[in-house]
Design a protein that fits this description.
Strands 1, 4, 7, 9, 10, 12 and 13 form a seven-stranded mixed β-sheet that branches. The protein has a five-stranded parallel β-sheet with strand order 2-5-8-14-11, with no helix packed on it. It folds into two domains: 55 residues, no CATH class; 122 residues, no CATH class. It is 20% helix and 31% strand. The protein is built from four helices and 14 strands. With 207 residues, the chain is an alpha/beta fold.
């Protein structure tokens, strides 16, 4: 694909590069500042050449390997979080997978969907979490379902509609007929921890 740098990039091409940048940052190859800058460039890239420049100094160049459907393996659609201690955060313009396996211990996990790239209508979070907080930063149009989450000595604080405190499912759309962009289903177990839901506000451009 780098033999045609002027070819227009597709959404799949951008998503693939974003995923590889995230993996590179997780491996310690990119700093948080470098990741933020490259993610912004990847999401606004117009050509394959612009995308290739963002991964040229990484061990694997997903643009050179090809995009999904042209011979390359698709980006991983499962995010596994197994950190022990400290804090794990996914913020900014990250690509939301179809499923998240949540298995941290004594660790606070923040999943901020304010500026996330959402390609699925449903996200399933399989949780086996102990001694930590799970903070979901959602926003208008996002539905959170914890009907199948088992709480063991754990607390939940959701921000739903008034008069809806008895329902463990929260919807933010003002119009019930609206199509919601993402439904987050959390299943599994939360033990000796907290689930906190916050409203997210999309960042305004500095321009």
């Amino acid at each position: 694909m780098t033999e045609q740098p002027d070819l227009r990039a597709s959404h799949a091409d951008r998503d693939q590069v974003v995923e590889w940048l995230r993996i590179a940052a997780g491996d310690g190859r990119l700093s948080a500042e470098e990741l933020d800058a490259r993610l912004e460039s990847a999401l606004t890239a117009r050509t394959l050449g612009e995308l290739a420049e963002l991964t040229s100094d990484l061990p694997v160049d997903p643009v050179a390997a090809g995009s999904p459907g042209i011979g390359a393996a698709p980006a991983k659609d499962v995010l596994v979080i197994e950190q022990k201690g400290g804090q794990y955060a996914r913020t900014g313009p990250w690509v939301v997978p179809g499923r998240i396996e949540l298995r941290p211990k004594m660790c606070d996990v923040i999943l901020d969907f304010t500026d996330a790239v959402i390609n699925h209508r449903t996200l399933r979070i399989d949780a086996d979490m102990r001694l930590g907080k799970l903070i979901i930063v959602a926003g208008p149009g996002i539905e959170l379902d914890i009907d199948n989450l088992t709480l063991a000595f754990a607390k939940v604080r959701l921000r739903g509609e008034r008069g809806d405190r008895g329902d463990r499912r929260r919807r933010y759309s003002a119009d019930p007929s609206d199509v919601r962009p993402l439904r987050i289903e959390i299943v599994g177990t939360l033990k000796y921890g907290k689930l906190i839901e916050r409203r997210g506000r999309r960042r305004r451009s500095a321009r």
